[in-house]
UniProtKB/TrEMBL annotation:
GO terms for molecular function: hydrolase activity. It comes from the Bacteria. Pfam families: Metallophos (PF00149). Residues 2-100 form the Calcineurin-like phosphoesterase domain. This is Calcineurin-like phosphoesterase superfamily protein.
Amino acid sequence: MIYYTSDLHLGHENIIKLCNRPFSSLNEMNETLIENWNKRVTNLDKVYILGDLMFRSEMEPNTVLSRLKGKKHLIVGNHDHPWMKKVNLGQHFESVDNLMVLENGKSKITLCHFPMMSFEGKYLIYGHIHNNKPQSYWPLLKTMENAFNTSVEVNDYKPVSFEELIENNAVFRV
């Protein structure tokens, strides 16, 4: 199975308030996100992480990465560089890229942490914006029917399949 996720912000207490996450503490958020991940993902599954896995975190990155199941592929986000310096990326990730284009049957899918107005292929999967709609870019972004937000706030705080991304984004766009 192939899953997508982004913007977990493990270790970032203020994200609970900023994105109105349903957690009462940093520990509850961290443990719920890891538990949700591991309930879905097996060690044989691929998981594309579209950035911002950890931010301002006191968590030890090697420990966190070792706890997360699956064959992980990292698309680097704007908050990833500090924790990336503390790990052997090859030990935890199948690939690390700023942008990636996948083949999904007949269609190409561009993966990038940031939303893009122009991209290669039929679909774009992005993160970065969390559940923020009141931004100047939102009226344009919401009309892009082939672009899907993989931020955890939009996707039940767990990695999701391509089909689930489509369903969850239909609800998010309303």
